[in-house]
Amino acid sequence: MNIILLEEHELGRNLSRRDERTIHLLKVLHKKCGDEFEAGILGGIRATGRIEKINRDGSIFITIHGSLPPVPRLGLRMAVSFVRPIQLKRLFRDLSNIGVSAIDLIGTDMGEKSYRDTKLLSDGGSRSALIEGAVQARDTQIPELNLYDSIDNWLSKCPWEKENDNKIFSRSPLLLVMDNIRAEGSFFSLSPSNRPGVIAIGPERGWSDRERDLFEKSGFLRLSMGERALRTETACVAAAALAMEKTEIN
User: Fold this and answer.
1) Residue 52: CA atoms inside 13 Å, Cβ hemisphere, count?
2) What is the pLDDT of residues 96-144, one digit of tens each?
């Protein structure tokens, strides 16, 4: 853990001896009573934490001091086809670590329908993975997570157009869809832009022609990242890294 995050309701309460944060502070970092560490409030400030008391039962009481703004999120929204649950957990962690603003999980024509039944989205696993990624990045914020049953539904909602109060998306975003089959150009040769980005990543079997037509009608540019068929989670990380070079996402 590169930062210890507390939720608002945990302030003023002991952390149990079995809490992973307690274990990390006492067993990994070998912190003692009175020692300080990097801390923050989930969804809020960064600050300095201090161990005020180590109780007989092994629980600890910590306090938060100071106030620094959170690390800015990137002006990047990632729309991703459902993948296997174990891959999905890694995907949430990595995209949160990179700093994307939002993740939209979408049902697709060529995607495996059974992947949508994952319990990761209902048992708290997705949130834990997002927090894990933020902690690694010394961030206090996690991406917004949304679910859509189809590309049709996602495009009709246009969630990026409803973020006008978000400074990151105050400018019209660059709309991109990764497509190695019927690409209109290469992501590598895309001209730099001063706009935030919305990037759609399909399943490993690719997009259907019906979905390609929907993207085209909605103003998305179809781009390739090379001839290789990448795993969905690999394509997401690669596209996010390219977008950090090609678009004004900070």
Assistant:
1) 12
2) 999 999 999 999 999 888 888 888 888 899 999 999 999 999 999 999 9
Residue 81 Cα distances to 73, 106, 132, 204, angstroms? 22, 5, 21, 9
Q: Bigger pLDDT: 181 or 61?
A: 61
The model carries a pTM of: 0.90
Tokens representing 172? 């019209």
Q: What is the 3-state secondary structure (H, E, C) of 158-217?
A: CHHHHCCCCHHHCCCCEEEEECCCCCCEEHHHCCCCCCCEEEEECCCCCCCHHHHHHHHH
Residue type, 195: R
**Cβ pair 180, 224 in contact under 8 A:** yes
| Residue 139 falls in which region: left (phi positive, over 0), alpha (psi -120 to 50) or beta | beta
Phi/psi at 174 (nearest 5 deg)?
Answer: -80, 125
